[in-house]
Amino acid sequence: MDSTMENNIQMQDSHGRGHGYLRISITENCNLRCTYCMPAEGIALTPKAHLMTADEIITIAQTFVNLGVNKIRLTGGEPLVRKDAAAIIQRLGKLGVELTLTTNGILVHDFIDTFKEAGVTTLNVSIDSLQEEKFNQITRRNYFDKFWKNLELLDANGFQLKLNVVVIKGFNDNEIVDFIELTKERNIQIRFIEFMPFDGNQWNKDKLVSYAEILTQVNYNYSAEKVERMTDKPNDTAKNHKIASYKGSFSVISSVTNPFCSTCNRIRLTADGKLKNCLFSNTETSLLDTLRAGGDIEPLIYQNIKSKFAMRGGMDDDTKFQNPKLFSQNRSMIKIGG
Ligand code: SAM
Ligand code: SF4
Questions:
Q1: Transmembrane ranges (predicted)?
Q2: Contact call for residues 21 and 69 (beta carbons, < 8 A)
Q3: Could you write out the DSSP letters of every residue in 38-75?
Q4: pTM, full prediction
Q5: N or C: which terminus of the chain carries fewer CB neighbours within 10 A?
Q6: 284 lines ligand 1 (CB under 6 A)
Q7: Which pLDDT band, with edges at 50, 70 and 90, does 2 fall under?
């Protein structure tokens, strides 16, 4: 049975969407402080006793796999800052799913063997500027050289890489072509992400660079016959393109201006064991509380998925989506896990 069929029959919501892709945040901590992800004053961290232990992560993940999940992504915070990250990755690697991570890359040099042993072959790595000063400004830390060294290391070890770039007007929108040029000689995918609103990230519409604006820049810099629109995979959040003869590709994740909710197959587990059926949902179901009380989490999972809104946690038009009263009821991104 292929994964699409499996998704269609497993864990359906009331809009007919199957859910085969679980994203697990394993920590709220991070070694960077990206301005679009977390507030300047930091976040109040959940006490450790309320966070999932490694055993609890594996138990919950196994339950999801039994219900049809066939892909798991680890995220955070920065997943690799968690002290037992390697053990968690190794154990999840035995569940027989496609296992991957989203990471800022700063610690990957310590995990190359772990990734290989766990069967991780692709990684999403985040970078928002190719210029050192701007990289340091957006991350509020000075790890530019470390980042590049580690990216080369991943590349040299044969990992398939996707680079996540949050595009912010007046900050890095003048680097779109520079990022695309990275795909000339390297078989990597650049993923331009529209800047999304979350609690405390100073989002406003003027900072948004839309899918249409990104394509305008692309079309200005490359002739029409060189820009190829690729076929997107089922459930793909990215609209994929490439420049003819370049080794890699680029895509746009347009959650703000062109949401892809109708094919969404994703569910999210936060580091404190809460199930979120949408990145933008402001309701959550605690699986951890029930697990610790010795209860059955399966009915909770089904209920949570059934209650999923058709679009962006119920913020189904621009007015609702851009209303700070609504989006600030959600967590900040660092506490959701991207
Ligand atoms: N620390 C890891 C990293 O940075 O890759 C994983 C967690 S991070 C929250 C996951 C992804 O969410 C990153 O690619 C980050 O750029 C993206 N992200 C964070 N805040 C965002 C926002 N407001 N809008 C769009 N993407 C955002
Ligand atoms: Fe940390 Fe990733 Fe958020 Fe940056 S985007 S602060 S690296 S969790």
A1: none
A2: yes
A3: S-TT---PPPGGGSPPHHHHHHHHHHHHHTT--EEEEE
A4: 0.94
A5: N
A6: no
A7: very low
CATH numbers and ranges of domains, the chain: 3-332 (3.20.20.70)
> Is the CB of 75 inside a 6 Å radius of any atom of ligand 1?
yes
Helix (H/G/I), strand (E/B), else coil: 244? coil
3-state secondary structure of 180: helix
How much helix, strand and coil, in percent to the nearest 5, is found in the chain? 40, 20, 45
Residue with the smallest CA separation from ligand 1 atom 1 is 78
Tell me the pLDDT tens digit for each residue of 65-111: 999 999 999 999 999 999 999 999 999 999 999 999 999 999 999 99
For ligand 1, is residue 195 a contact (CB within 6 Å)? yes
249 lines ligand 1 (CB under 6 A): no
CA 32 / ligand 2 centre spacing (Å): 6
Say if residues 74 and 92 touch (Cβ distance below 8 Å): yes
Ligand nearest to the CA of 103: 1
Alpha helices by DSSP H, listed for the chain, are 3-9, 54-66, 85-92, 112-118, 132-139, 144-156, 176-181, 211-221, 287-292, 298-306, 318-321, 324-327, 333-336
Tokens of 162: 């996707």
Q: Residue 161 has which token pair?
A: 């890489």
Q: Is the CB of 61 under 6 A from ligand 1?
A: no
pLDDT at 93: 98
Tell me which ligand sits closest to the C-alpha of residue 28: 2
In whole angstroms, what is the distance from residue 63 CA to residue 68 CA? 9
Ligand 2 atom nearest to 166, measured from its CA? 5
**The length of the chain, given as a count of residues:** 338
- Residue 194 CA, closest ligand 1 atom number: 25
Among 116, 61, 54, 108, which Cα is nearest to 80's?
Answer: 108
7 lines ligand 2 (CB under 6 A): no
